[in-house]
């Protein structure tokens, strides 16, 4: 990498605004990209000092753009978390995604040896480029490739008319940080620093829980994840009425 010019650089606030504007023109299909860009900006504006240091590294993402004059030309960006919990979201509007593929291949900002988790949209060209870069590194055989993240959306006017009934034996209340341990224990994808992630999610993004009126036990919950979307719904297996 010493002889390779770094293909990426951190985006300026103005460039992030441009990216958001580009993807807002493509709503609703681009909702996941608008959401993560806006969420990163919000977190950076909200967390400072000790609060920032204690936050999950999955929340502490930096947005990178191509290291060139017209960096926003194709809407190419990589949002990369910190070393302890690296999540990488990438996207581009270029077809084929040559600029993005070259960036993933050459950048030093992706710490491949730390096994980052990639999040991509439904673009098959981007998926193929990612597979190609991973295969070139000789690690395709050692990683798990899944496609289990689907975004659902509805117009806000429709959402405002929805109604729901809460069963009589439970009550709906906001989640608090102390509930993170229960959620982490229930989550089937638990990993070594996932508790810290849930603590940060609840503290800064919020969530709702259904609590048993008799013993106060958390029986079901939903949180807003680090992509600024509804990212986790958990239900205690013993709960019958929810």
UniProtKB/TrEMBL annotation:
Matching entries from Pfam families are given as: DUF5645 (PF18713)
Per its UniProt record, what InterPro entries does this chain match? Acyl-CoA_N-acyltransferase, Acyl_CoA_acyltransferase, DUF5645
Q: Which SUPFAM superfamilies match?
A: Acyl-CoA N-acyltransferases (Nat) (SSF55729)
Which residue intervals define the domain DUF5645 in the entry? Answer: 7-133
Descriptive protein name? AGAP010118-PA-like protein
Naturally occurring in which organism (per UniProt): Anopheles sinensis (Mosquito)
């Amino acid at each position: 990498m010493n002889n390779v010019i770094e293909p990426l650089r951190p985006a300026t606030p103005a460039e992030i605004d441009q990216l958001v504007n580009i993807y807002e023109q493509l709503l609703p299909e681009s909702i996941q990209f608008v959401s993560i860009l806006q969420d990163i900006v919000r977190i950076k504006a909200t967390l400072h000092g000790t609060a920032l240091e204690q936050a999950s590294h999955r929340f502490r993402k930096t947005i990178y753009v191509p290291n060139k004059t017209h960096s926003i030309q194709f809407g190419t960006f990589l949002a990369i978390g910190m070393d302890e919990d690296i999540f990488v979201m990438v996207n581009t509007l270029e077809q084929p995604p040559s600029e993005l593929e070259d960036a993933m291949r050459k950048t030093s900002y992706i710490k491949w040896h730390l096994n980052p988790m990639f999040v991509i949209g439904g673009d098959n060209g981007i998926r193929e480029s990612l597979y190609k870069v991973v295969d070139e590194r000789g690690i395709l055989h050692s990683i798990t490739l899944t496609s289990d993240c689907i975004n659902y959306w509805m117009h806000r006017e429709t959402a405002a008319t929805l109604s729901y009934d809460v069963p009589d034996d439970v009550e709906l209340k906001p989640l608090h940080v102390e509930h993170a341990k229960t959620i982490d224990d229930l989550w089937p994808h638990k990993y070594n620093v996932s508790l810290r992630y849930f603590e940060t999610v609840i503290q800064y993004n919020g969530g709702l829980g259904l609590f048993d009126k008799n013993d106060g036990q958390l029986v079901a919950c939903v949180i807003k994840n680090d992509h600024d979307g509804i990212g986790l719904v958990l239900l205690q297996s013993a709960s019958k009425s929810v």
